[in-house]
Write a structure and sequence with these properties.
Length: 322
Amino acid sequence: MRQAGRYLPEYRATRGKAGGFLNLCYTPALAEEVTLQPIRRFGFDASILFSDILVVPDALGQKVAFQEGEGPVLEPFTDLKALGKLDLTKIRSHLAPVYETVERLSKSLPAETTLIGFAGAPWTVATYMVGGRGSPDQGAAKAWAYRAPDEFQVLIDLLVEATIEHLSAQIEAGAEVIQIFDTWAGSLPPLSFERFALQPVKKIWAALLAKFPDVPVIAFPRGAGAQMVNYFKETGISAISMDTGVSPAWAREALQPLGCVQGNLDPLLLVAGGPEMRAQAEMILATLSGGPFIFNLGHGIVPQTPPEHVAELVKLVQEWKS
């Protein structure tokens, strides 16, 4: 999950030099630096590229901006005519600075630290593209998907191709593992989940597998609940990441027989620290470490997290491993 961010004072200092969030993503030396900062502090087993899921619509030609205190703001697309303005051929050229960051990290990270590249899943990226910003219910994208599913499929198919291109370029630059974040997968009812969340990731994984058979792919269908079982089986992904609402005991019985699971400590427990954080982390470890398992949070680290609590958690997991 997210490692760099506003909880680290060194990140805030580096971001100040960039003059804006997208500038930070597109300046390889600075993006490399903020990716390395949490590795220097905490010695995680893996490092995740500093970037954002919305660099893809930005590369396609949609206007994207990040406003302080507001988050991402996009010029919304609501029909096929607007989609005609998007250009798949610009992915590699527009995002060349991102791939340069990956290449730099492949050389600057410690040899024992795995480099994870990532992208947003088509459904989640589409919710921002259609709604123009994040929303509690993804209402704009769902309205279009329900009203005219075949039209909406055109956007999803475009994002499948863009995501394959974006992830392929990251792997070619040195990413050793890929993670696909579908933050809003759980907002879809079953038939729509199958069409707009599961099938697109299945296509992405099949394309990557054909080109890069040794690169694992982790997917994070947040909020998918019991649908995670079929999602894991049908997509064929290497590992599945669990949000905080997934019971580790259930995951041990339902998901671990299918492959590696990742998760799923509540990020707010990391804010609180202390005995409760340790108890819940130890429960997750005790429940899942008998099978293929990556200890992680159940969503991204939040800005108010004390760095000393992160250090405490890393020490706990490392001691458990040893």
